[in-house]
Amino acid sequence: MARKYSELQAKMSPEAGARAEEGSKQLIAEMALAELRRAMGFSQEDVAGLMNVKQPSIAKLEQRTDMYVSSLRDHIHALGGELILIARFPDRDVKISSVSGPSTSKDAAP
Q1: Quick check: is 84 in a domain?
Q2: Per the count of CB atoms within 10 A, which of 3, 14, 37, 100 is most buried?
Q3: What is the end-to-end Cα distance of the chain in Å, rounded?
């Protein structure tokens, strides 16, 4: 007979529980958008309702390999998260503070 994880967790030593938690965090650290949604306990319909779109839009978004950052940000926000963009260079990481509009820099292309 299958047992609930919560029953198994209650019987774990604190060390085993900590190892299980760390393993879980590592698995969630890198996953596809649909896997993340499922891991967070949301259905496509749940997310669609939160984003005020229809469920097929969520299915389509999760299958895309290229999308607008704003679409990804909205999807992550609906799951209760925050999207943070980091540009990784050989000598440093740079957090991108805003991608919401066109650049106002003098060096920006017209």
Answers
A1: yes
A2: 37
A3: 66
